[in-house]
UniProtKB/TrEMBL annotation:
Keyword Transferase carried by entry: yes
Superkingdom, taxonomy of origin: Bacteria
Protein name per UniProt: histidine kinase
Top EC class of this enzyme: transferase
Organism: Streptosporangium canum
Gene Ontology molecular-function annotations: ATP binding; phosphorelay sensor kinase activity; protein dimerization activity
Residues annotated as transmembrane: 12-36, 42-62, 67-86, 92-108, 115-135, 147-167
Lineage per the UniProt record: Bacteria, Bacillati, Actinomycetota, Actinomycetes, Streptosporangiales
Gene Ontology cellular component list: membrane
Length: 394
């Protein structure tokens, strides 16, 4: 609920509560005026009116201090019980409704054990009320009327307590569900951060290492060659450490985000030529070709296409000994975009340790965008193919 919604809700609730209190108080005043007209003593009227006022105060106080408000209400009910009245119990006054209201607020805020104690206090008060009323019962009035009244009061108090308990448990279940939803959202966000860090940083580190290795091969100075080799090895170690660190941020599988974060450069097919060019070096021939007329893509499909190219180039440069040739090809039809990243197998395969989870993330991106992903190991190298629907073919 937003702040504006709270501002519009609470005043209406407050108005309803105030109206209820005013109506109950007016009904009580009318009844007390009638009883005084029938011959009740003035002290009885004042005692009953004071107790009724305490009941209203207790109901209001119970909103913020449940036990204090409930104690005030219980004291007021005790005053009503001990005040003799004409022909019926004073706890049947309209203002006596404030006592079950205080019980409701107490039950909804304290522990179940404490609310049971409050219920027991209310039940004891009803028993005391009926015993006092039975002792004052006129000789011509049957005693079963006290049992009926006591039973009805027990039903009212017990029903209020049980209803408040059920409402409280429902609210607790709602809060638990909301907490679980927030925890899942946090986990998804952590996994999204992990995936994006892998896509961006791993590609950049791999390209840097490839360029350093190319520089080491082309230099004529042995000392410089050794230094560049050490730097390249340090870069590969940093890549392995990065992957180990990112594994602590969340699961490898998560529904990809289709949009970029605030402050990030939007991912676009227009960035592919620069992405391909940045990966090229004297030992890494990376070329780009695009065939067919471009068609409109959904944002998730465009992100999947760019990330697929990025991951394909990263894997080729990371897993293959140079020299390496990588070809990136986009082929457009009215119904789909076919993305292909093909390498020639390089000089040999590198031992880079455990496999990463980048391809898993790419597969999820492609599947979420409504496409398919395949990876083939041919005689002359690896081929990554992604087929993504255009808006016309979706």
């Amino acid at each position: 609920m937003t702040a504006s919604q709270r501002r519009s809700t609470w005043p209406a609730t407050t108005v309803v509560v105030v109206v209820v209190h005013v109506v109950l108080a007016l009904l009580t005043v009318i009844i007390l005026a009638g009883v005084w007209h029938l011959g009740a003593d003035l002290w009885q009227i004042f005692a009953t009116a004071g107790a009724a006022g305490l009941l209203h105060v207790g109901a209001v106080v119970a909103h913020r201090r449940p036990w204090v408000g409930y104690a005030i209400g219980a004291l007021a009910m005790l005053v009503l019980v001990l005040t003799p009245f004409l022909g019926w119990s004073p706890n049947m006054l309209p203002s006596a409704v404030c006592f079950p209201l205080a019980l409701w607020r107490l039950t909804s805020r304290v522990s179940v054990r404490s609310s049971v104690v409050a219920l027991a206090v209310a039940a004891l008060g009803i028993v005391l009320t009926e015993l006092v009323a039975w002792a004052r019962l006129p000789s011509d009035t049957p005693g079963w009327t006290r049992l009926v009244e006591g039973g009805l009061l027990m039903l009212v108090v017990g029903g209020v307590w049980l209803a408040a308990l059920l409402v409280r448990r429902r609210h607790e279940a709602d809060r638990r569900a909301e907490s679980e939803r927030l925890a899942a959202a946090v986990a998804d966000e952590r996994a999204g951060i992990r995936r994006d860090l892998h896509d961006v940083i791993a590609h950049t580190v791999t390209v840097m290492v490839a360029r350093i290795e190319a520089a080491a091969v082309t230099t004529a100075d042995p000392a410089t060659r050794r230094e560049l080799g050490d730097i390249a090895e340090a870069g590969r170690d940093a890549h392995q450490g990065l992957r180990a660190m990112l594994a602590t941020l969340g699961p490898a599988t998560v529904a990809p985000r289709a949009d970029s974060r605030p402050g990030e450069v939007p991912i676009s097919l227009d960035a592919l030529p620069d992405l391909v060019a940045s990966a090229a070096s004297p030992l890494h021939a990376v070329t780009f070709a695009e065939v067919g007329e471009r068609r409109p893509l959904s944002l998730s499909a465009e992100v999947a296409a760019v990330r697929a190219v990025q991951e394909g180039i990263t894997n080729a440069l990371r897993h293959l000994e140079p020299p390496v040739e990588v070809t990136v090809r986009l082929r457009w039809t009215p119904a789909e975009l076919a993305v292909e990243v093909r390498d020639d197998g390089g000089k040999a395969l590198r031992d880079v340790g455990s496999q990463g989870t980048g391809l898993i993330g790419i597969e999820e991106r492609v599947r979420t965008a409504g496409g398919t992903l395949s990876i083939d190991d041919g005689d002359d190298g690896w081929v990554l193919r992604a087929r993504l629907p255009t808006k016309e073919g979706a």
